[in-house]
Amino acid sequence: MGKGASSRKSRNKSVLNVASPPPAPPQQAPAATTDDITVTERSISPATTSQINARPHLEAVAANGLPKPAFGISALAQTTIPMWVQTFVMISLIFGGCCSNVFALEAIVKEEPQSGHLITFAQFLLVAAEGFYYHFDRTSPTLLKPNQIPIIRWLGQIVLFFSVSVLNNYAFGFNISVPVHIILRSGGSMTTMLIGCLFGKRYSRLQVFSVLILSIGIVISALGDAKSKNGTESSGTQFVAGLSILFIAQVLSAFMGLYVEATYAKYGSNWREGLFYTHALALFLFLPFSKGISSQFNALLNSPPLPIKEWASYASLPLPLFISGIRIPRQLFYLVLNSLTQYLCIRGVNILGSVSSALTVTIVLNIRKLVSLLLSIWLFGNELHVQVLLGATVVFGGGFLYGIESQRQNKLRKMNTARAKAKKAQ
């Protein structure tokens, strides 16, 4: 009897030890970190029971008599509703933000085509201010959160990103219209492939074919736009200079893409940190352009005011007296709108890239560019030559084909890597 009682006590004691988590687990399971999400690997060690304890929930279910299907429906609703909300936010930011950004940009350059440096500076300033708010840490000596990637590594990307952004907006001062600007910038795959080949990258035949189609579309669009202008020799020279500036920007953008790819491969991906440092540290590079930016700002400040009274009367809305007396320069308003929508566009693209494949990002961005092109034609009365529209169709088609083939090549590369690791493990 004594022996049986002691055996029962021992079993009861072991049951109690399993049910309640130990105060100090002897060993913790290793954690695999992916960006901001920390996933704890499965383990049979006691650390698992200290992290996951379903007993309170099961006891509550048993006490309330809740059936199992209710828990399943609740879980489904909790996972489905945020997904739909996230999809709606992404679509709103990309199409609403990016398309509104193109509208505000064209509204400025139609009146002030030389304001490219001011537009770029305003965009950088807003993104840098938001990034500083996000990375602010009052306990740190630098007032910033510890950076994942060394600052010295960001310097190369900062110079490239600054140059690309300035050149893209500077091209508007050389007789380049917004629709043609959209079409020509869609040809980034061509320069990416050329620079990639110089660095030993290999591409499939279909990728080369799609880029060849894309290049032909760019040439068709450029020649068609040059024909439609029918300007003087000086305007033709300006147009060629504008095309050269955009081409240089595309080449630098391709170098930047390879540089970012190497950086993230070595230190890990952190788009938030990259967005902040590439904008904040690049603000000092605007110092040589300060006089031009100041004169451009004064020109926008002296632009005609927004027709607030006309808008209110058209919408049959009562307008308070203190609002009717406010004078908001029209071009300055568009500058603020351009900067805000640029930030929304960047956020939307980064959210999409974090939850979707590269193919999805390529398709969505191509559709967005096409919508921006159509809005530019409709809202601002841009009459494009038939040859330009034909070239635009070829460019978007080539870009779509390149995105599909690139996605297929990435899958094959991952499968081959997995097979090689499996063979090595055997």
What does this entry look like structurally?
By secondary structure, this protein is mainly α. Helix content is 74%, strand content 2%. Strands 1-2 form a two-stranded antiparallel sheet.
Overall average residue pLDDT = 75
Q: Which regions have little confidence, pLDDT < 50, spanning 5+ residues? A: 1-79
Total strand count, please? Answer: 2
Distance between the termini: 55 Å
The profile of the biggest β sheet is: 2 strands, antiparallel
How much of the sequence is in beta strands? under 5%
Give the helix level as a range of percent.
over 70%
Q: Rounded to an integer, what's the Rg over CA atoms? A: 29 Å
Q: How many alpha or pi helices?
A: 17
Structural class: mainly alpha
- In the sheet with the most strands, the strands line up as 1-2
Keywords:
426 residues, mainly alpha, two-stranded antiparallel ribbon, 17 helices, 74% helix, disordered N terminus
Summed up:
With 426 residues, the chain is mostly helical. It contains 17 helices and two strands.
